[in-house]
Description:
globular; hydrolase activity; hydrolase
Amino acid sequence: MHxxxxxxxxxxxxxxxxxxxxxxxxxxxVEELRYGSDRSQFAELSRTAAATSLGVVVVIHGGFWRxxxxxxxxxxxxxxxVEEGWDVLNLEYRRVGGGGGFPQTFDDVADGIDLLAETDLxxxxxxxxxxxxxxxxxxxxxxxxxLQDSPWxxxxxxxxxxxxxxxxxxxxxxxxxxxxxxxxxxxxxxxxDASWRLADPAQQVPLPVPVRCVHAADDQxxxxxxxxxxxxxxxAAGADAELVEVPGDHFSVIxxxxxxxxxxxxxxxxx
Length: 271
């Protein structure tokens, strides 16, 4: 089997193992907020019981932007973050196969974060936290204020930092190796062209806010080179970006019992 086919097959098998689980049900104390009429245009807001919140974390789930995966993947993370003292917005969005793609998926992420303006939460510290495809969207959302020639250039709630967990941060590079069986091409509706600049974090450096890339060296789904190359490129452009290498595999970073997750909690506190 060709190397690119092996990468795609590994990604498909790993993602199938992390399909939505009935044990990831929405807790009773979570508030659902909607930002559109589509079934996927909503978010779940969880508030910390701590006397003073550390800020708001916007959790953006992965799944190679495909409709077979949903925000249930982010519920364990949200529970852990609330216990640590954060308020959490666990964001759903339209995915490929369910009305998503470019630009719909991007519209939803921008509009979903702006939901925070309609709550009573303080928005002076808003950190996006995304896994895999969600890592791409988390870092992309941190760039919105710089995309002045786009529909997303004036966010109501600016992102103040981004944490990517095994994120796909170079869309063109992902397309080049057919990552996820052509997931980036499916998201963008075709091969790389000029429109990809508005969607590709690797083409949007430097950002004016910190970016932290948490990634396992043994990740066989999204290679750590995706994060390492982004950090090198961002730092060369003068940005505040760091690679945090953790043990485990692609899904260790969203296992709340793992060392990789504990490292992520430390990164968030440091931000």
